[in-house]
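RETRY 2/3 - previous attempt timed out on the joint model. Re-submitting the same 225-residue input unchanged.
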Amino acid sequence: RKEVEQDPGPFNVPEGATVAFNCTYSNSASQSFFWYRQDCRKEPKLLMSVYSSGNEDGRFTAQLNRASQYISLLIRDSKLSDSATYLCVVNKDTNAGKSTFGDGTTLTVKP
Amino acid sequence: EPEVTQTPSHQVTQMGQEVILRCVPISNHLYFYWYRQILGQKVEFLVSFYNNEISEKSEIFDDQFSVERPDGSNFTLKIRSTKLEDSAMYFCASRDQLREDEQYFGPGTRLTVT
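RETRY 2/3 succeeded.
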């Protein structure tokens, strides 16, 4: 089983659509969770951290369910500029340890 | 806005040659990382570095790899004898002591081994 598993995608949606990405992780001892965005041939950029209480940043909402080892990202009112690959990232601990990336889910928003 | 920089942006080398990839992390950051991404594949952790020593390394980071912080600003990744399968994008990242979530990535060095 992969350490971090994401929806395989790709997702092709029209502008204005709501789209949800799912991610599961295998290590129950994982401490911190993130969504990154990666544009083609560019570096990953932090989109948002994910907390058990859930967090929202504008059109983006992230949720964490520790019992199910499940993380989600919801994008509302999608824009053309949201087209990218979304990476689910899990850290084993909060110190200088490794980040484990999922394979990514590619989103294309079409006019 | 401060940023992580990496040089060169693209490095072409012959199999068996040594390469050094360079990174300048954000100046007040204390934790440094190297990742690689083979074309079309996921980002893979290589190594983390703190307080002048390796904190953690992956199975990929074998004896052919080494990291160094030769001065107060640079953070380097050396591959001693490159193989074809080392061809990838190599990303450096850094973060400060307090903001565990904010890991800043550099633009990457594309390494092509021929």
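Chain A touches chain B at residues 32, 34, 38, 41-46, 49, 87, 91, 94-104 (CB under 8 Å). Closing ticket.
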